[in-house]
Design a protein that fits this description.
The complex is a heterodimer of chains A (640) and B (318).
Chain A lengths: L1 H5 L6 H7 L4 H25 L3 H9 L6 H8 L1 E4 L2 H17 L9 H18 L4 H18 L6 H5 E2 L11 E2 L1 H9 L13 H12 L5 E4 L6 H37 L3 H5 L5 H34 L2 H29 L5 H28 L12 H14 L7 H29 L8 H18 L6 H23 L11 E2 L1 H27 L12 H23 L4 H25 L17 H25 L2 E2 L1
Parallel strand pairs in A: 1-4, 5-6
Antiparallel strand pairs in A: 2-3
Helix pairs in contact in A: 2-14, 3-4, 3-12, 3-14, 7-8, 8-11, 12-14, 12-15, 12-16, 14-15, 14-18, 15-17, 15-18, 16-17, 17-18, 18-19, 19-20, 19-21, 20-21, 20-22, 21-22, 22-23, 22-24
Chain B lengths: L2 E9 L5 E10 L4 E5 L6 H8 L7 E6 L2 E2 L4 H5 L2 E4 L11 H11 L4 H14 L15 H13 L5 E5 L7 H16 L3 E6 L2 H5 L4 E6 L2 E7 H7 L5 E8 L5 H9 L4 E9 L2 E8 L2 H14 L3 E8 L3 H13 L1
Helix pairs in contact in B: 3-4, 5-6
The chains are: A mainly alpha (640), B alpha/beta (318).
Keywords (chain B): ATP-binding, Nucleotide-binding, Transport
Family (chain B): Belongs to the ABC transporter superfamily.
GO molecular function (chain B): ATP binding; ATP hydrolysis activity
């Protein structure tokens, strides 16, 4: 172990050594071996086991056709054991000897044979097309005469006259009821039309078997490659759980603990620089996670190879890596930010809830985009969990999403995650260094803004209207832009009253990012890709632009206020109210931009409801920016 | 290691100064005390010295090299114990030292040897594998200081190391610092418990509101504030029980202020402040003997650092 540790980079060595000190490394290795063994055993068991539970698992995982369908399609009854096989043999002998009328039991053999023969009787009633089908019809009639002559009269028995109590109702046929009246036990007939080749094939099989279903002892239809596949599938699940939930939470909790117990400061006085410390602090918990991940990665790779879907598996690992790096560093930053005020336990629980919620949303979105909706395929660019879900499914089931755009967006998201992770690492390093100033430089913020702009535009359908791209893009970008702007607010270990914040330059930065989305992207989109597209210049209506500028400025002021000083409850309530007015203002901007509003009365749309409300809206439009600037002046040493 | 601070200043907001125009010259191998009330700028000064904070103005030099040029390199030569440093309670002293040694990029073999040596130096060998959470506060403080010395720095910076220690822990700390000084390490220590520094430090600096008030060897500082302040303690034989009263009667006629009377080791004593130097004291002594007071000893009482500090503080306030 020591030799292995010596190979670690200097920044990771102290923290990995700490995480694996004493007997911890051995314990983790044993647990990991047990987990890997369990993954393999469960994979083999589910793939090859012949019990009901394993069969149902395989069926629910779509690795095996449901037993009923298999029995119907192959006209083969599956016995779960030797005793059942013997019972079925007895039923078969009766069927061969006495025909369907001799069977009175309720076993699967009887119902399979009954259903097949009843369906044959229904097939006789349906109009056949072509020589082949008519010849088959004749063969079926001959078969029924020998095995179940009663069924030749089933149409007559099944006839029900129209109900006199319900004028206009049609006469109808209930074949299943007629069958039970004839034989004393119930079966339901299968769907049959001569136009359905699968249904016709089943009738062909019935004729070839002379109306006698085969009997087989049930065994899993899956082989070793599927066993490895299912083990790999489980391993993939463990990888996702560790990479996107466990590792980030472990790192966040440890970082919060370092802050909470003030143990970080001595580390900053060592020969490791802040970036090395940031990476090192995450390296400790990650080393523990890796002990569990590496063997699972082996199982995952083996499974993907066995199933033959290596490329999607690599895509899955790429998306997972991007997401894990971002989530881990992001969680570490959260732990660092809140660790001084909240206990590590609270941080861990909060992040766990957040992770579960994000996964629920991401997996649902991923499934929907993957299987059904091409229009929302791009949304996976916004949430790594969605792309991961799609690649995971492709790795084990092949086929792929209905839209190739899904994978492009997912891979773009992975790239975006790595850029965002780099920014988070820079911010974290600044926090650890404890130097005053903003967490991100202007250049870093621009890089972040451009990355988010790219992802937001990928998230929208390729054929989206330009105006939609402009406004929905800004809506999507509002959250990342707020986070970026907050990271640009100068912080330090002094009281807010002693700090000065450059409010106007910061608002200018936010304005520039927003302009890039609102003006630059449409220009690029129209100019380079779709010159024939029509760009309605009404989006530049002065009233709409004023409302848009207002909403961007107020959003910026709210973000600066949130980042620069702690808030009291009343301030938070006021900020929340201001945020609501931003949404209303944005809606005004959109409606003016798309031409829905074009009357002077609609400058303040609340006036439509009541003149008083209109006046109030106008007053708030003036007062809100002023109040936010006043608030900033009162809590800070100065603003520029 | 010699430490020089040349016009060092620190402001967090570009407006108010936490430390300003601080000039210090700390000789190699000395124990240097930094004294000042809370908020005076001690921790800021020490953090700048330890390269954890960049001065807004001025320079910090270690053996003539500016630390700002290579802060990480400088850090390898500094051991810094900040204010209120807790331990990882679940780690043993050996594990804790190993972690910090690795943070200083010490090679494995050298590190293991240094851990053994340091644990022995600090009398922690018996507690090598005991979790730090189970150690006494004094022992934990020793572990913390041991951590600062593991990588064999030339400068040890301790911010309020005696804070929260009981008298036994403080004595322990004194002995430890003495041993460290014997190793040739320069020690810079801050405290507001002046008695801790009085007989421990070779030199002190008193700072208030971020500015240096006075700095230098303790004796020099005391002497420079001793001018026109003569305090004497007289011990007397008291055979008839009226020695103190007779002495008070004589002193009432002279320019002398009685600071304290009492009894020590079975003998009455009077502590007086004489407003006239040694000549006046000689006169008083002659009159006391003439009045039948049997003076056994007469000794001049020197001020302590704490007295000087109090006086300087009063002047600052006034």
């Amino acid at each position: 172990m020591d030799k292995l540790l010596d190979k670690l980079p200097a920044f990771a060595l102290p923290f990995v050594t700490r995480s694996l000190r004493g007997s911890r490394a051995k314990r983790y290795l044993v647990f990991s071996a047990v987990l890997t063994g369990m993954t393999m055993i469960i994979g083999l068991w589910i793939a090859l086991g012949a019990g009901d539970f394993e069969r149902e698992m395989r069926t629910s995982l779509d690795f095996e056709t449901p037993m009923y369908e298999r029995e119907r399609d192959e006209l083969t009854v599956l016995a779960m054991d030797a005793w059942q096989h013997r019972d079925y043999e007895e039923s078969r002998a009766v069927l061969e000897r006495e025909g369907l009328a001799g069977l009175a039991g309720h076993d699967t053999y009887t119902s399979t044979a009954g259903t097949a023969l009843l369906t044959a009787a229904v097939a006789l009633e349906k109009p056949a097309y072509g020589e082949q089908h008519r010849a088959l019809q004749l063969q079926l009639r001959t078969l029924l005469e020998r095995r179940a002559p009663e069924l030749l009269e089933v149409r007559k028995e099944a006839y029900h006259a129209a109900d006199e109590d319900y004028p206009g109702s049609e006469p109808y046929y209930d074949y299943d009821e007629a069958f039970s009246l004839s034989y004393g036990f119930y079966v339901g007939h299968d769907y049959f039309e001569w136009t359905d080749p699968e249904a016709v094939a089943r009738m062909q099989t019935l004729v070839e078997r002379d109306g006698i279903p085969e009997i087989e002892v049930y065994s899993s239809p899956l082989g070793l490659e599927h066993a490895l596949g299912i083990a790999g599938m489980l391993a993939g699940f463990v990888l996702m759980a560790v990479g996107t939930v466990l590792a980030p939470i472990l790192v966040a909790v440890q970082q919060a603990q370092e802050r909470n117990e003030n143990t970080l400061m001595p580390l900053t006085a060592t020969a490791l620089n802040p970036r090395e410390l940031a990476l090192g602090l995450s390296a400790g918990p990650i080393a523990v996670a890796l002990i569990f991940v590496v063997p699972q990665l082996g199982v995952f790779g083996l499974g993907a190879l066995a199933m033959g879907y290596v490329v999607p598996a690599l895509g899955f690992l790429g998306v997972l890596t991007g997401a894990s790096v971002l989530l881990t560093l992001g969680a570490q930053l959260v732990g660092d930010l809140v660790g001084t005020k909240r206990t590590p336990g609270i941080v861990g629980i909060a992040l766990m809830v957040l992770a579960v919620a994000t996964w629920s949303f991401g997996a649902t979105l991923g499934l929907e985009a993957y299987e059904y909706d091409r229009d929302i395929a791009g949304l996976v660019a916004l949430l790594p969990h969605a792309g991961m879900t799609g690649f995971y499914l492709t790795t084990w089931y092949g086929g792929g999403s209905s839209s190739g755009y899904f994978y492009l967006a997912a891979l773009a998201n992975a790239g975006g995650c790595l850029v965002a992770a780099h920014l988070v690492l820079s911010a974290l390093s600044k926090r650890i260094a404890g130097r005053s100033g903003p967490l991100l430089t202007r250049g870093q913020a621009v890089a972040g803004a451009l990355t988010f702009i790219l992802l937001a535009n990928l998230a929208m359908p390729l054929d989206a209207e330009i105006e939609m791209r402009q406004y929905i893009g800004l809506g999507i970008l509002s959250v990342p832009f707020i986070v970026l702007l907050m990271a640009r607010v100068p912080l330090g270990d002094t009281a807010p009253k002693l700090r000065s914040v450059p409010v106007m330059p910061l608002l200018g930065e936010l304005g520039a990012w927003s302009a890039a989305q609102f003006i630059l992207i449409p220009l690029v989109y129209v100019g380079l890709f779709s010159p024939e597209l029509h760009w309605d210049l009404e989006v530049f209506h002065p009233v709409g632009l004023v409302w848009l500028t207002w909403s961007i400025a107020v959003t910026g002021l709210i973000a600066i206020r949130l980042a620069s000083a702690p808030n009291k409850i009343l301030s938070n309530v006021w900020l929340a109210f201001c945020a609501v007015t931003v949404v209303i203002a944005f809606v005004h901007a959109v409606l003016w931009g798309v031409g829905e509003f074009n009357d002077i009365d609609e400058v303040f749309a609340m006036a439509e409801l009541s003149p008083v409300l209109g006046l109030l809206q106008a007053a708030l439009a003036v007062w809100i920016p002023i109040s936010l600037v006043r608030q900033l002046r009162s809590v800070l040493g100065g603003i520029r | 290691m010699r430490v020089e601070l040349d016009n060092v200043g620190k402001t967090y907001d570009g407006d108010s100064w936490a430390v300003r125009e601080l000039k210090l010259d700390i000789p190699s191998g000395s124990i240097f005390g930094l004294i000042g009330p809370n908020g005076a700028g001690k921790s800021t000064t020490l953090r700048m010295m330890a390269t954890l904070m960049e001065p807004t103005e001025g320079t910090v030099e270690l053996d003539g090299n500016k630390v700002a040029d290579a802060p990480l390199e400088a850090r390898r030569r500094i051991g810094f114990l900040g204010d209120g440093n807790p331990l990882y309670k679940q780690m043993t002293p050996a594990e804790y030292l190993r972690m910090f040694g690795q943070c200083f990029r010490m090679p494995r073999a050298e590190l293991e040897q240094a851990i053994d040596d340091t644990l022995e130096t600090f009398d922690l060998t018996a507690k090598r594998d005991t979790e730090c959470g189970a150690l006494s506060k004094g022992m934990r403080q020793r572990v913390l200081i041991a951590r600062c010395l593991l990588h064999k720095p030339g400068l040890l910076i301790l911010d309020e190391p005696a804070d929260g220690l009981d008298p036994r822990g403080r004595n322990d700390l004194r002995r430890t610092l003495g041993r460290i000084q014997d190793m040739g390490v320069t020690i810079v220590i801050s405290s507001h418990i002046l008695r801790e520094l009085d007989d421990l430090c070779d030199q002190v600096a008193i700072i208030q509101r971020g500015r240096l008030v006075v700095a230098g060897p303790i004796d020099q500082i005391i002497d420079s504030h001793e001018v026109s302040r003569f305090v004497y303690e007289l011990r007397m034989l008291d055979e008839d029980g009226g020695a103190i009263e007779r002495a008070q009667a004589v002193l009432a006629r002279k320019r002398a202020l009685i600071e304290e009377t009492g009894e020590s080791e079975g003998q009455p004593f009077v502590r007086i402040q004489v407003q006239g130097g040694e000549g006046l004291m000689a006169e008083i002594l002659a009159e006391l003997i003439g009045a039948g007071v049997k003076v056994v000893t007469c000794s001049r009482q020197r001020s302590r650092l704490e007295d000087v500090y109090d006086r300087i503080s009063e002047n600052q306030v006034n």
